Amino acid sequence: MNQHGYHCPECDGSEGIKIAATATSWVCLMEDGVEDDGLNWEWDDTSDARCLECDWHGKVVGLVVIAEEEWSEDGD
After folding, report:
1. Which of 25, 52, 58, 63 might form a disulfide with 16, Cβ 3.0–4.6 angstroms?
2. Strand, coil or helix: 18
3. Domain of residue 41, residue span
4. What was the pLDDT predicted at 2?
5. What is the pLDDT of residues 30-43, one digit of tens each?
6. Residue 61 located in a structural domain
7. What is the pTM of this model?
8. 1 in a domain, yes or no?
């Protein structure tokens, strides 16, 4: 189970979900180089999504979302 509860609408897979996300990082330019605050990953319902298990592709809004409290103890 991935940490967002996303499942493929075709095969119900959850481990092979890929999302087209954008990474942003603020950097501070300093005399001896740069310092960054790490990456912030962002996507929304209109971002492209794909299932690596069955090759479904669509938008994030098309994924099935299972609430964390509904996850089984073994992670399925």
Report:
1. 52
2. strand
3. 6-70
4. 85
5. 999 998 888 899 99
6. yes
7. 0.73
8. no
Number of domains in the chain: 1
Strands, E assignment, the chain: 6-7, 17-19, 22-24, 27-30, 33-36, 40-42, 48-51, 57-59, 64-65
Between 75 and 7, where is the model more confident?
7
Residue 10 lies in a domain: yes
**Maximum separation of any 2 CA atoms in the chain, in Å:** 53
Q: Which two tokens stand for residue 21?
A: 């996300």
Q: Residues with Cβ < 8 Å from 23, sequence gap 6 or more?
A: 39, 40, 41, 42
Q: Which of 15, 17, 10, 4 has the alpha carbon at shortest distance from 66? A: 4
Amino acid in position 56: W
pLDDT at 69: 65
Torsion sign, CA atoms 27, 33, 38, 42: positive
